[in-house]
Amino acid sequence: MKKLINNPDNVVLEALDGMAAAHRDIIRVHKDPNFITRISSPVKGKVALLSGGGSGHEPLHGGFVGLGMLDAACPGAIFTSPTPDQMLAATKAVDGGAGVLHIVKNYTGDVMNFEMAADLVKGDGVAVESVVIDDDVAVKDSTWTAGRRGVGTTVLAEKICGGAAEAKRSLAEVAALCRKVNAQGRSMGMALTACTVPHAGKPSFALKEDEMEIGIGIHGEPGRHRVKLEKADRIAEMLMQPILEDLPFKSGDNVLLFVNGMGGTPAIELYVIYRKAHEIATKHGLAVVRNLVGSYITSLEMAGCSITLLKLDDDMVKYWDAPVHTPALRWGV
Amino acid sequence: MKKLINNPDNVVLEALDGMAAAHRDIIRVHKDPNFITRISSPVKGKVALLSGGGSGHEPLHGGFVGLGMLDAACPGAIFTSPTPDQMLAATKAVDGGAGVLHIVKNYTGDVMNFEMAADLVKGDGVAVESVVIDDDVAVKDSTWTAGRRGVGTTVLAEKICGGAAEAKRSLAEVAALCRKVNAQGRSMGMALTACTVPHAGKPSFALKEDEMEIGIGIHGEPGRHRVKLEKADRIAEMLMQPILEDLPFKSGDNVLLFVNGMGGTPAIELYVIYRKAHEIATKHGLAVVRNLVGSYITSLEMAGCSITLLKLDDDMVKYWDAPVHTPALRWGV
C-alpha cells in the first residue's frame, strides 16, 4: 500500500487538521465528535445544510462547507458512516432558527444514522428535513444499499440547495428543491483500478490489466459488468446510455453535465471523456448549459470516472450560478 | 496501460476539444498550430502572458488561461515542448500593443523554442520579454535540463504576474515581478508511482512496492534518492528541508505554501502532507499567509506530491488575491 499517510488510524483526523490549517478563512474543524462548520456559524434566519458520510470521497463533503453551499459536514472513518452524535452536534451547531436540511447519500449506515440524529434533534425543537440522494443508475440494490446509491448528484444538490438557502428560501422549499434535483439527476461510474482502504492495506477488489468495471460504486462496490478495457469514447457511451434511458431527458432540455474523476484520474483524461459525453448529450438534443469537470466525489486513489446529468430548471440554474466560497468550489466571491 | 483515452496519437487534441466544449465562456482553442487563448483576445493595452510546455501536466498551462492569469497557452505533445510556430502564432494573437511576457519552464526544448519564437516575433515589431522558471531544488542539472527544472513556482508566477498585467503594469514591470517570484520560490517533489506516457505504453521507470523517489521531476526524471517508503510526516520533512535550506527564508517572512498533487494523488493525502508542511513552516517562524492545495502541475497519473514555498511581498499578495477566472483557478469573479 503506497499512500501519503502516517498511520491508517489517523488519516481522517490528520487530513482534517490539514484542512483546518489550509482553510481557516472558510471552515472550522470541531473534534470529538468530529464535524466541520463554516467559521461563522450558525447563520441566523438561514436554513442550514448538513451532509456527511464516510471519508475517502474528498472533497465531498468537507470541501463543500462555506458560503453558498453546506453549513456543516460530518466525516466518518474511511468508507464508514459518521455516527448520530456527530450529526446531532453538527445540526445543533448550525441551526440558525430556520431549520436544518440533512442531505444523505443512500447507503444503509448513513440513512440509519441520519434518521436517528434527526429524531434526537427534533426532541430539542430543531426543525429538520432529510433528503436521500439515490441517483446511481448502475444497480438497483448494492452491497451497502437498499435501492440506488447516492453519488454525483449529491455535489450538485449541495451547490444548488446551498444557493437557495442563502436566498433565504424556507426549509420546506429547500427540501423540495433538493428532492427535485435528486429526481432529475442521474449518474453512472466506472473504474480502471481499485482503491485501497488504509486499514485493509490491500485493494478492495482486483481488476486485470485489460479489465474495467462499469457501474462501480464509490466504495468499489461491484457494478454492472466487468468487461475488457475499451476506448474512452466507448466508455463515455457505456455511461451515458443508461443515464439517458433512465430519465426521460427529451430534446430541448437544458442540462448540467458533470464529468467526475474518482481520485486517481488526471485532468487530461477527464477532458477526453467530457468531449464525448458532451457530443452524445448534444446529439440527443440536450443543451449542455452548465458543466463541471474535476474530481469532486472520489473513491480514494481509484482511477476512473463518473458522469452525472442533471435536467435543469430556471431555479436550479440561478442557484448553481450563485456565489460559492468553499475549499473545493469557488466562484462569484 | 490503463487510461481513459482513445488513441495515444489523439489524446492532446481530444482533451483540447473537451476543454473547448467545457469552458467556452473562458477559452478558445486554436488548431494547427495548437494554442489556447481567452475568448476575447487580445486585450488592448494590457501586457499579455503566454506560457506553454509539454502536455501531461494539466491543468498547467491551458487550465490557467483567462482573466487574471494567462492570455494564451501552447500545449506540446505529451512531455514534449511545443514548437516555435505555436508560440509565434499565440504571441501574435494575444499582443494588445503592450507586449508579451513568455513564462518558460526550464527544460532545454522549451527554452530553445521560446527563444526562437521570441526572435521571430520581434522581427514583427512585437515587444517580448522572457522569464525562465527554475525553482526545483532537487537537482542541479537533470535529464532534460541545464540548471534547475521549472516546476510549482510556475503556477504561482502565472497567477501573480497575471494580476499585475490586469492592473496594467508595464512589460518591464511584469517581467521583473516574474523574475522576483522565481527568485523567491523553491520547490521539491516526490513520487510513489511512475506515470505512463501514452505513446510509450509502459511506466517511465519502476518503483518497488516499498520504494519512493525523492526529488522527482514532472516527467519522471530521476530525483535525489530512491529510498524506502516513509510516513507522510517524514516525506514532508524530506521536501521542506532542502527548500528551507536553499532560500534564506527567515523568521517573520510571509510565505505562500503550495502542496501540489502529481495527478494520481487523492485530496485526503494532500491535506495530510499540508498539515505537516504548515507545521514545519510555522516552526521555522514563517507566516503562511496564503496557500494552495490541489493538483495544479501534474505528471499524468503519477502518485506523489510536490511542495512549493514562495516568500511573499506586498505586491505578490495583492496580485495573488486579485480576481481570476480560468478553467482551473477561480475567485473574486
Low-confidence stretches of chain A: none
Q: Give the CATH architecture of the largest domain in chain A.
A: 3-Layer(aba) Sandwich
N to C succession of SSEs of chain A: HEEEEHEHEHHEEEHEHEEHEE
Q: How many domain regions of chain A?
A: 2
Q: What is the CATH first-level class name of the largest domain in chain A? A: Alpha Beta
- Helix segment tally of chain A: 8
For this entry, what is the oligomeric state of its chains? homodimer
Mean pLDDT of chain A: 96
Task: Count the beta strands of chain A.
Answer: 14
What is Rg of chain A? 19 Å
Q: Give the CA-based shape of chain A.
A: globular
Report the CATH topology name of the largest domain in chain A: Rossmann fold
Percent range of helical residues of chain A: 25-40%
* Structural class category of chain A: alpha/beta
Report the biggest beta sheet of chain A as strand number plus sense, adding barrel if it closes: 6 strands, mixed
CATH superfamily of the largest domain in chain A: Dihydroxyacetone kinase, domain 1
Compute the separation of the termini of chain A in Å: 40 Å
